[in-house]
From TrEMBL:
InterPro entries hit by this protein: TPR-like_helical_dom_sf, TPR_rpt
Record's protein name: Uncharacterized protein
Highest taxon in the source lineage: Bacteria
Organism: Listeria booriae
Signal peptide segment: none
Residues passing through the membrane, by range: 249-266, 272-292, 354-374
TPR repeat start and end residues: 141-174
Bias (Basic and acidic residues): 322-338
Gene3D superfamilies: Tetratricopeptide repeat domain
Record key words, sorted: Membrane, TPR repeat, Transmembrane, Transmembrane helix
Region span, Disordered: 322-348
Length: 628
């Protein structure tokens, strides 16, 4: 429930935003006179001074007075940040940001603003703050996209792509994120994706930057241009900075001219022919590029001043309005004993170092030239995990369409995206609140598997835990496999088979298969299945009888089923899952070998002294490794 004090402040904000400054000022002053020790009046006066009078000094004085009466007033700290955002006094902005992170630690706004503040000095120092903001507000495309962009600039491209995919999953038409992804794709040589994303950016916002991206990527639709740029990209890869078409073509010329030097040892004529062919290829590629760009004239004027987009704060400052002369409110004596953090030290920026390693073994270059001649739609590792040009991109788009429709309570176009044979099953699954919530909060990392007839996507939650696998046929959702989704014997067996196939094809992070197998085993013993045939296929042959006897003990079985929190640790010989329930009960230890359960340890599970001693030893080792 919103407190009366906050309601008062929000009502006053509306008055100021509507230009009714005099009335707002009188109301704020009346709050102060009625309750001089209450922070609300001073907070209201601060907003009038900031948003109405554009007087930063007075506004900050009222903010300080507000915090004197209530040091935890989040609105005052946020207003303090806004007052000094973009000013030359970074120390004051930093002070209010630090107060916000201290007293409103769950608000993503403050670490995001701290990251913006540090970004100009050091991306390395700013990165943890952007990461924290993206973690606190994982559904904010601005925060997630910003962290992704910083990771890319720091050279952590895999992390950047994962977060950018998540950001585009939240908002596929976020202009800045689409632009960044388009530029990355171009610089990494994924030209088809760059063309698609730049076109999308232009549709989202028809301005000079989007037009530049389109004109940059459009010529790569020609195979010769794409080949020249890809090869040139290899030679300029060691250099930092934005990689443009001109730099790539220059890299192509200089790099291949260097490789032509050995031809002169054969004869001068052969060497001259090689150099001439390289130059001719660049000239032809340049002419083709100019021709394609000429056909793609966009007619967009560059903006007069660059517009810097920042995260939209809760408190918004309205446009400046002229106000008539009014009586000033009671002056507030500003306290000087509040220590402000020292200004941020500017780190000396070092000039970009050029990596001298620009020569590549001729054999590798010949292989790359062969790659450049391949069709533009060739698959590679990046395509398997990218958002819009990856293998399985259409399946991923349909998955997000279904997921977003569920979130927005919209009707799903059955014939277009869900197979007729699966639609009744899907409706039944979505009638279960737990499964519907799981589906609505899921996203795909782009890990894709195609067995020729059917296609599969790995679906995770925002923390990276595997939720289920989606099956597609002819680009339509055809089935879902996972714990709780298809608990038939055939469904469990298919789920296990697919997990194994994913691991062999793409590799799965440590513990995913072990956790998935454990969930399936638990689900089997939760159900009325007396056979447990599929579950026991995930248990080592030598342990199957012992495990079945354990599960015949009701107390042991109850503890086993309730232990759903997993911590995975690999000691190279065996893999272990430490399993706990939600009531801080005694943990269980599941020992795995080759993805199969080979033993279980629990407190008082066995009368064998060696078993109990081994349980204590493993638990101690796991706790120690987990603390590292």
């Amino acid at each position: 429930m919103i407190s009366t004090r906050v309601m008062k402040f929000e009502a006053l904000m509306k008055l100021v935003d509507n230009g009714e400054l005099e009335e707002a000022r009188e109301i704020a002053q009346s709050y102060v006179e009625a309750q001089p020790r209450n922070f609300v009046g001073y907070l209201c006066l601060a907003y009038v001074a900031f948003a109405g009078d554009k007087d930063k000094v007075a506004a900050e004085a009222y903010v300080e007075e507000t915090l004197r009466h209530d040091p935890r007033c989040e609105e005052a700290m946020r207003l303090g940040v806004m007052i000094w955002t973009g000013s030359d006094n970074a120390a004051k902005e930093k002070y209010y940001i630090e107060q916000g992170m201290r007293y409103a630690s769950r608000e993503a706004f403050y670490p995001y603003r701290m990251g913006i503040l540090l970004e100009a000095q050091s991306l390395t120092e700013a990165a943890p703050y952007f990461e924290k903001a993206a973690g606190l507000d994982a559904r904010n495309a601005d925060y997630v996209g910003k962290y992704s962009n910083v990771m890319y600039q720091l050279g952590k491209k895999k992390v950047a792509r994962d977060y950018m995919q998540r950001a585009l999953g939240l908002d596929p038409n976020h202009t800045e994120n689409v632009r960044n992804f388009a530029q990355w794709s171009f610089e990494d040589g994924h030209f088809k994706m760059a063309r698609d994303l730049s076109e999308r950016a232009l549709q989202t916002k028809h301005d000079a930057e989007s037009a530049r991206l389109v004109r940059q990527a459009a010529p790569t639709s020609n195979w010769l241009v794409a080949m020249v740029l890809r090869i040139g990209l290899l030679f300029i890869a060691p250099f930092k900075g934005r990689k443009t078409s001109a730099k790539m073509m220059l890299g192509f010329v200089l790099g291949l001219w260097i490789l032509c030097i050995p031809l002169f040892f054969i004869s001068n004529l052969v060497g001259i022919i090689g150099v001439t062919v390289v130059l001719a290829l660049v000239v032809v590629a340049g002419l083709i590029s100019n021709g394609i760009r000429a056909k793609r004239q966009l007619g967009v004027e560059a903006p007069k001043t660059p517009v810097k987009q920042v995260a939209k704060p809760v408190i918004q400052a309205p446009p400046a309005k002229k106000v008539t002369e009014t009586k000033p409110p009671k002056p507030i004596t500003r306290e000087q004993n509040r220590e402000v953090n020292p200004p941020l030290a500017k780190k000396a920026t070092q000039p970009t170092k050029i990596n001298p390693k620009i020569f590549i073994v001729p054999a590798i270059i010949l292989a790359v030239i062969g790659f450049g001649l391949m069709e533009d739609n060739s698959a590679d590792d990046y395509d398997s995990s990218s958002y819009n040009d990856m293998s399985g991109a259409e399946e991923a788009d349909y998955f997000f369409t279904i997921r977003n429709s569920l979130e927005n309570e919209e009707d799903i176009a059955q014939d277009d995206i869900i197979d007729d044979s699966f639609y009744p099953v899907f409706e039944k699954l979505m009638s279960q609140p737990k499964l519907k919530e799981q589906f609505s909060s899921a996203y795909t990392t782009g890990e894709y598997l195609d067995d020729g007839e059917l296609q599969y996507l790995k679906i995770e939650d925002y923390s990276g835990d595997l939720l289920f696998l989606t099956e597609f046929k002819d680009y339509k959702l055809h089935g879902i496999y996972g714990t709780g989704w298809d608990d038939t014997e055939a469904g469990k067996a298919r789920y296990t088979e697919l997990l194994q196939a994913f691991e062999e094809e793409l590799g799965i992070s440590d513990g995913v298969l072990e956790e998935a197998h454990m969930k399936l085993i638990q689900a089997s013993f939760v159900s009325n299945d007396n056979n447990h045939a599929v579950a026991l296929t995930m248990v080592g042959e030598d342990f199957q009888d012992t495990f079945t006897d354990m599960m015949n003990d009701d107390a042991v079985k109850k503890q086993f089923i309730a232990s759903t929190n997993f911590v995975f640790i690999d000691d190279s010989d065996y893999q272990y899952l430490k399993m706990t329930d939600n009531n801080d009960g005694e943990p269980l230890i599941a020992q795995f070998e080759d993805k199969n359960l080979v033993y279980m340890y629990g407190a008082d599970w066995s009368e064998d002294a060696e078993d109990q001693a081994r349980y204590e030893e493993i638990l101690s080792d796991l706790d120690w490794e987990d603390s590292l």
